[in-house]
Specification:
Layout (H helix, E strand, L loop, with lengths): L9 H9 L30 H10 L2 E3 L4 E2 L11 E9 L2 E10 L2 E10 L6 E4 L5 H8 L8 E2 L3 H8 L3 E3 L2 E3 L1 H6 L4 H10 L1 H25 L4 E5 L11 H21 L3 E6 L7 H6 L4 E4 L10 H10 L3 E6 L1 H6 L2 H15 L5 E5 L10 H17 L3
Parallel strand pairs: 1-8, 9-10, 10-11, 11-12, 12-13, 13-14
Antiparallel strand pairs: 2-7, 3-4, 4-5, 5-6
């Protein structure tokens, strides 16, 4: 642990762990529950108020924020004509959007429940290869970014943590055009077409990333989507072909601008962990334990640490929402025993609650998570 006489703020603690150093204690991060962002919905929801007060007092923040962009469809700022229809069914709102492309229309339908802060795609943009070609026919216009909100978020977070924008990798963007089973048929039966699509999107992603970094550079960039290409869905060879080179290019550019990268990959990462590290990322998350994952946290830590990468995880949201405080405490204690030694570890849930109101049992379990993290995380 550095002995320079400087105080251990949450910001310093997080940056030290990301750099595989040893802070005063393991950072305890509540991931998408961000106490230091006045624009985040949870800070305006009364049922979350007591938990957010505790989060602000005792945890280490990774505030999810990025500059505003005018991107519209497939990483393009091109203004395509849209049609929109909304229907209400009880607490659900169903929204259908029609996109008029140069070679034909596409349709996407989502549903949203007023009591849950997310939406579900019930009909994807593309149902066929021809639909993908229609999607790619929309002209690419680079996205313009505005970092005018940076001063506010930087001031609010201050020394309480770090800023973490979220980015999508090109293969994920392609996969997300279709429902999952159709995507798998596409990638296996029309592999070269899928590859060409990823290449087109990669050019857009890189140009947009250059533009985003030119207006603002944050501390840590989360790149999302690799779980779409992990076993058992696709073999490691596809992960190596469609994921690694593009994420590596994104990572190199971010490193050139002085920031760090965390690769976000749910699921069974055991057979692709070395490929994840081949991207040059500075850390990975959420590293779910078996049976949801396929590799224990101590093995993840050993392999990551050997490559100079940190580890974030691995307390599952299902334990925080459906378990007991005792089970939460046991999970935290186990995670610390597996990954605390030597630094380079951030204790973090695999996701965050999105329901309203927050269930009292979930609140109690988050309190137990924070208590245990502070108790077992001291170096």
């Amino acid at each position: 642990m550095p002995n320079d006489g400087q105080p251990w703020t949450s910001r310093r603690r997080m940056l030290t762990a990301i750099a595989c150093g040893v802070p005063d204690r393991v950072p305890v991060c509540t991931y998408e529950l961000v106490g230091y962002n006045s624009h985040a919905w949870e800070n305006h929801e009364p049922s979350y108020a007591r938990l957010l007060e505790r989060i602000r007092a005792d945890t280490d923040c990774a505030a999810m924020w990025e500059p505003r962009g005018n991107g519209r469809f497939l990483a393009s700022a091109h203004e395509s004509a849209l049609g929109r229809q909304e229907e209400r069914h009880g607490s659900f709102t169903r929204t259908a959007v029609i996109l008029h492309t140069p070679i034909g229309d596409l349709r996407r339908v989502t549903e949203q429940d007023a009591s849950v802060h997310t939406s579900w795609v019930v009909e994807h943009w593309c149902k066929s290869i021809a639909d993908v070609d229609r999607a790619l026919s929309v002209p690419y216009l680079p996205v313009t970014y505005d970092a005018g909100d940076y001063g506010r978020i930087k001031s609010e977070v201050g020394e309480h943590g770090i800023l973490m924008p979220s980015l999508s990798d090109p293969a994920y963007m392609a996969a997300d055009l279709m429902k999952f089973e159709d995507y798998l048929l596409w990638v296996f039966e029309e592999t070269e077409h899928f590859g060409r699509t990823v290449e087109v999107l990669a050019e857009r992603v890189m140009e947009n990333l250059r533009r985003e970094l030119s207006v603002c550079v944050c501390d840590l960039y989360r790149i999302c989507g690799p779980e779409f290409m992990t076993p058992p869905y696709t073999p490691p060879a596809m992960f190596e072909r469609f994921m690694v080179p593009h994420v590596a290019a994104m990572t190199r550019l971010i490193h050139e601008r002085g920031a760090k990268v965390r690769l976000h990959c749910h699921g069974k990462i055991g057979r692709v962990l070395d490929l994840i590290l081949d991207t040059g990322c500075d850390g990975t998350d959420p590293c779910e334990p078996p049976p949801d994952g396929d590799i224990e946290l101590d093995e993840v830590k050993r392999r990551c640490f050997a490559r100079g990468a940190s580890v974030f995880g691995n307390i599952e949201l299902k334990v925080l929402e459906c378990g007991t405080p005792r089970e939460v405490r046991q999970s935290v204690r186990r995670a610390m025993a597996q990954a605390k030694a030597g630094g380079g570890f951030v204790l973090m849930p695999t996701a965050a609650p999105i329901n309203v109101p927050l269930a009292p049992a979930t609140e109690a379990n988050y309190m137990a998570f924070i208590d245990a993290g502070l108790e077992f995380g001291r170096y």
